[in-house]
Write a structure and sequence with these properties.
Keywords: Oxidoreductase. The structure is a single chain. This protein is of the alpha/beta class and about 325 residues long. The protein folds into 2 domains: about 5-225, Pyruvate-ferredoxin oxidoreductase, PFOR, domain III (Pyruvate-ferredoxin Oxidoreductase, domain 3, 3-Layer(aba) Sandwich); about 250-310, 2-Layer Sandwich (Alpha-Beta Plaits), CATH 3.30.70.20. Helix content is about 25%, strand content about 15%. The chain contains 9 helices and 11 strands. The chain has a 7-stranded mixed sheet. It has a two-stranded antiparallel sheet with strand order 8-11. It has a two-stranded antiparallel sheet with strand order 9-10. Helix 1 (about 40-55) crosses helix 6, helix 4 crosses helix 5 and helix 5 (about 175-185) crosses helix 7. It is globular and about 60 Å long. The protein starts with a strand and ends in a 5-residue tail after the last strand.
């Protein structure tokens, strides 16, 4: 599992940036949640905003939804305290930056408080189509090259983990945002039961138990990450491998039962090798045209596409 602990060597949890018993009149607490469409950025921000409101705090929330279809940038500013005047957070004043996608986290790093800010990010890569400018096999995209260790060493408190992979192990990749919500909860002075009850309001009733489990997985991960910081090995996410000219065909797996026929993958495929059938299901027109860029897999809201590249050295 790809994960990187904080550079902190203490046995304490992340610094509590909001304390309900402390005097917060001087400035509000600032939380910034970022990611791409479909990851659940708005869910995280709504849970936090509602929890703060239930405690009698003033809350200002400002959000940008990006593309209506999946893949566009999404970010949400949440400011709360006894008095909050502006809905947007100035650069350099974010207390907690939560990134559901790695490059989006890097994009907003300048907003993090350079003295005391906490950065929490999923190492998941969702490469936008415009980063794939050269469609030849063996070409590299223009996605961010910074590694977790490079970034963690530049921030006061930093945590990077494969939340998407952890959610997949749990049985539902869509709960990765709830895992990160669990980590966020350790930085704010609210009772765990209040977090749970508020989370229940925003998830489908049949997924309440699953989301609560994901929430506690996040909390447990941060405790383990801190307590084992001195002995746990650091594992970076693997460098992206690109198909060389002599490589074999891509293994393209499609689960028709999950496909809703939204045609996002068809429209975004750089090679134009996907199409919708008469019954509104996706099919590959010619596997030889596929370069394995995985854009279709990353953008599919139904998780119906799985790309496996051939092994090469």
């Amino acid at each position: 599992m790809n994960q990187l602990k904080s550079k902190s060597k203490t046995s304490m949890l992340p610094t509590t940036v909001f304390n309900s018993s402390a005097d917060q009149a001087e400035r509000p607490t600032n939380v910034l949640v970022v990611g791409v469409g479909g990851q659940g950025v708005i869910l995280v921000s709504k849970v936090l905003a509602q929890l703060c409101l239930s405690k009698g705090l003033q809350v200002k929330q400002s959000e940008i939804h990006g593309m209506a279809k999946r893949g566009g940038t999404v970010f949400s500013h949440i400011r709360f305290g006894p008095q909050v005047w502006s809905p947007t957070i100035p650069a350099g004043e974010v207390d907690v930056l939560v990134a559901l996608e790695w490059a989006e986290g890097l994009r907003w790093l300048e907003y993090l408080n350079p003295e005391s800010g906490t950065f929490v990010s999923d190492t998941q890569h969702i490469v936008p189509p415009f980063a794939c400018r050269n469609r030849l096999r063996g070409a590299e995209d223009t996605y961010a090259r910074e590694t977790p260790s490079e970034i963690i060493n530049k921030v006061p408190n930093g945590f990077a983990l494969d939340a998407a992979g952890m959610a997949k192990e749990l049985g539902n990749e869509r709960t990765s945002n709830t895992i990160l919500l669990g980590i966020l909860s350790t930085t704010l002075d609210f009772e765990v039961k209040d977090w749970e009850e508020t989370l229940d309001l925003f998830v489908p009733p049949k997924t309440i138990d699953l989301n609560r489990e994901a929430f506690h997985i996040g909390r447990q991960w941060i405790e383990n990450a801190i307590h084992t910081a001195e002995v746990a090995p650091v594992t970076e996410f693997p460098v992206q491998q690109y198909l060389p000219e002599e490589s074999g065909l891509v293994d393209w797996e499609f689960t028709a039962e999950w496909c809703k026929g939204c045609d996002i993958c068809v429209k975004m495929c750089p090679e134009r090798c996907l199409r919708l059938t008469a019954d509104q299901k996706v099919e590959m027109t010619d596997i030889h045209d596929c370069t394995g860029c995985r854009i279709c897999e990353w953008l599919c809201p139904d998780f119906a596409i799985d790309i496996r590249k051939p092994e090469f050295h």
